[in-house]
Amino acid sequence: MTPHTFGTDLLRRSLAGTGTDSGPITHLSVIPTRTARFAEWPEWVDDAVREAFIDSGIDRPWIHQAQAAQHAAAGRHVAISTGTASGKSLAYQLPILDAMVRDQRSTALYLAPTKALGADQIRAVTSLIAGRPAFSHLAPCAYDGDTDPEIRHWARMHSRWIFTNPDMLHIGILTGVFAGGGAAGPTRGQWRGFLRNLRYIVVDECHHYRGVFGAHTALVLRRLLRLARACGSDPTVIAASATVADPAAALTRLIGEPAVGVTDDGSPRGERTIALWEPDFVPGVTGENDAPVRRSAGAESARLLADFVIEGARTLCFGRSRRGVEITALGAREALSHSAPDLVDKVAAYRAGYLADDRRRLEQQISEGELVGVATTNALELGVDISGLDAVIIAGYPGTVASFWQQAGRAGRQRTSGDALVVLVARDDPLDTYLVHHPSALLDTPVEAPVFDPRNPYILGPHLLCAATEFPLQDTEIDAWGARDTVDELTAQGLLRRRKAGWYPAAGVDPHGDIDIRGGIGGQILIIDQTTSELLGTVDSGRAPSSVHPGAVHIHQGRSYVVDELDLDDGLALAHPEEPDWTTSARETTEVVITEIIDQATHGPLTVALADVDVTHQVVGYLRTLLSGEVLDAVALDMPRHTLHTRAVLYTLPDDELAALGIDATRLPGALHAAEHAAIGLLPLIATCDRWDIGGLSTSSHPDTGLPTVFVYDGHLGGAGFAERGYTEFATWIAATRDAVRACGCDNGCPSCVQSPKCGNGNDPLDKAGAVQTLSAITGWLSGT
Ligand SMILES: Nc1ncnc2c1ncn2[C@@H]1O[C@H](COP(=O)(O)OP(=O)(O)OP(=O)(O)O)[C@@H](O)[C@H]1O
């Protein structure tokens, strides 16, 4: 029976006639109301700090705020993971402000993955301390890529609380501590005073640090901690996230030092109704190899957005690209123009450049009812404080459970009732299909632990050089970072030298500029808008042929460009702005060579292994797909071959066992290929990656194993930890893959189960039934049955 809640009533009214127990809704559940639990202000809190909070309307802290502040004040690194809008800011503001009032020289560094979030936090602190003499020396200030040189200079001299990001910390702060500091450090020595007095480091939204970005950030934080200690301070790290699994372990991995976690959320919350929604197949429309196509998540969400707006429900609709978001807003406006023309102007797309001011304006327009429905990219996922939002529509699983809850948490921020509806609309994709049919995998499992690998030698090596440039490296540090082999290699290459006081870089080594914290590893290709010469971004040279080949549609901050030319020698991809009606996906051939088996396990006839591999790709063409999912055409290309040294999880199965299941030599390639595709689609369930971070290969007989073999490999040089997670969680991953394929309602395979948008072989051959049989057999062997 459907419960009566704010959310179910809204759904029922919006879908009058369809009912909420049937049709596209695959699951409906209610998270009940929670009341606030308060603590007293800790005894050590200075009167001036307490008064500032009380005057801002906060009479007492919630229990988790007091607990986290207590740990931090006692000098324990602490990670707080409580819901969205649970006042995590206060948990770090409290110990920081207190330290600053007690010792006027104390400093703090706040790190956020986005500049906009840092700007929000400065605003919050500035308004909290405004007009209070006890805090007049703080001068909270941003220090990032957008900060003017004069303000940077002023900040270095005067600010006690700097708001920055890992990129600027790496290139603009750590280089300016000691005289050595890296030849790149124009601010040489100027940060020393700040670091000498550094009491706290805040790592906000710490679940963002995953994959290659996570590994880089982990090493930047370790470099920060060692430099601070070399300057004479011993800062405490406070990490915060609404959505990180086992926060103590996550922070420990990030900084390489023990940390404690706080998870008992004392903040109040309204009742939240969650609906999972699977769009129907569109009659008469077919995609690749005549597979059926579902209604797009964007079109379905547009219809829901219009319905909610008619019901007066203030709604945010999250989409994955700016273009998708604009189409959703247009679709909703179009629907309203027929049924409720006076509401057309109440719907907008959030398409500004992710600036804090744009967000403020939008928050205000929604609060005042000027806008009722807004379609937005994940730009509004972090740091938005819109009170009274009634509903959130998520058009397509956003990639991680963490992001899902971040987006879901935007609704119901009204303290008085806070009731809200969240609808996840599935895309035509195996992971989305799995989740809407297995709600507990989304709603009942803890969010995934961020996956990253700070020991990847291709990432670790350059950071060791940076560290040695900043301050001589010590043997104890090398051991703590697990870096002995990499140091030996750098020494053999003549890049590091051992002297009495530690390890130093060789003369002329200037490593900072070679590291791209958000990008990949190795050479970078610059993507340029050739009509304006604007730099749109960078891509790993290894990935360039498949992502920025001539004719590729490239999305940058939601805007669309088409690539005209890729010059791998000069490191340039030249593009022009264009909004075609299609997306592109590269077709490529792949070969895998096993270079070393790291670990392996045998389960009856099944062998599962983790291995170092060389993956060689060649892009041979690309497919153009209309936004409806319909395939327009295939275009041939001839791009150079490229080899990636990385890590893979692989499994082998003997032919005779498969033949006994009815999968003979004619069916084998299709069964393995389909099983591989679905497994790639499902790996993000257990490893915080995107399916574009990984690749795969299946073959009826691999030269290195002599057996039918399936590989799933990391798309990053040296591996980002994703394949390793696939290896350790193999049983969970493969069982979920089998369930996803089995749950899909199509006959012979479609994008919701075994077709892949980036298949190098045009999704041919694929044997859906064979994949289910193979995956079922694997789960049986794994459990010993
Ligand atoms: N102890 C408290 N009592 C009452 N209100 C509080 C308390 N602590 C914080 N708040 C209020 O709760 C709201 C949310 O706080 P804040 O933005 O810090 O949450 P958050 O957890 O950082 O949010 P996000 O999910 O966006 O990261 C703010 O309006 C803040 O003033």
TrEMBL record:
Protein name per the record: DEAD/DEAH box helicase
GO biological process: interstrand cross-link repair; nucleotide-excision repair
Entry keyword set: ATP-binding, Helicase, Hydrolase, Nucleotide-binding
Annotated Gene3D superfamilies: P-loop containing nucleotide triphosphate hydrolases (3.40.50.300)
Start and end residues of each Helicase ATP-binding domain: 69-262
GO MF annotation: an example: ATP binding
Domain Helicase C-terminal: 304-458
